[in-house]
Amino acid sequence: MALATNACTPCAACKLLRRRCAQECPFSPYFSSHEPQKFASVHKVFGASNVSKMLMDVPENQRADAVSSLVYEANARIRDPVYGCMGVIYALQQQIRLLQAELS
Amino acid sequence: MALATNACTPCAACKLLRRRCAQECPFSPYFSSHEPQKFASVHKVFGASNVSKMLMDVPENQRADAVSSLVYEANARIRDPVYGCMGVIYALQQQIRLLQAELS
């Protein structure tokens, strides 16, 4: 019996990693072939194997949220290789200080 | 001639990866053996090879900052496997909305 695959439309992860996209592929529900950039970003920053491990570590109903936050984090790191998400956090903290000063 | 190493005090990275800590080790300036948890965190979330690549991609005088932000990010992800740094960003954005509402 042939092994079931998503061969007609391999997910973005399997396409980038040049591997068969099996039906139980951990990436395919979250990395559509229509948005290859999302997987490319998390692959560059975290590595495919770490992304897979991190997804398996969270309950299935929270994996889509985990993917969104990983993609956001990876893009922040690619945009700002020194501070990544920390750059966003610093800016928000600064905005809070300004608002608090206005209020006091 | 023996190859120069940091053999007496291998850095936290080389200790965890069980390898010789050469004098040109990319991790040793940033991951002291006295704080093993820092490297353990970035290793778990990003992987040693990605951390090394990300460090090499930034100018030397910014690498200490890059390490701090990577350690922060990794710890946020370990603490909150679904949202990581995004959880912190959501909370700050919420605080900003509350302050803005107070001001208006």
Structural overview:
The structure is a homodimer of 104-residue chains. With 104 residues, chain A is mainly α. The first copy, chain A, has helices spanning 12-16, 36-45, 48-56, 63-79, 85-103. The model of chain A has no long low-confidence stretch (mean pLDDT 92). The longest helix of chain A has 19 residues, at 85-103. In chain A, α2 crosses α4 and α3 (48-56) runs antiparallel to α4. The first copy, chain A, is elongated and about 65 Å long. Helices cover 58% and strands 0% of the residues of chain A. Chain A contains five helices and no strands. The interface between A and B is medium-sized, with 35 and 35 residues.
How far is the first residue's CA from the last residue's CA of chain A?
Answer: 72 Å
Largest sheet of chain A: none
List the uncertain runs of chain A.
none
| Structural class determined from secondary elements of chain A | mainly alpha
What general outline of chain A do the C-alpha atoms trace?
Answer: elongated
Q: Number of DSSP strands of chain A? A: 0
Number of helices of chain A: 5
Order of helices and strands of chain A: HHHHH
Work out the oligomeric state of the chains in this entry: homodimer
Proportion of strand residues of chain A: under 5%
Radius of gyration computed on alpha carbons of chain A: 18 Å
Largest interface: A-B, 35 and 35 residues
Overall pLDDT score of chain A: 92
What's the helical proportion of residues of chain A? Answer: 55-70%
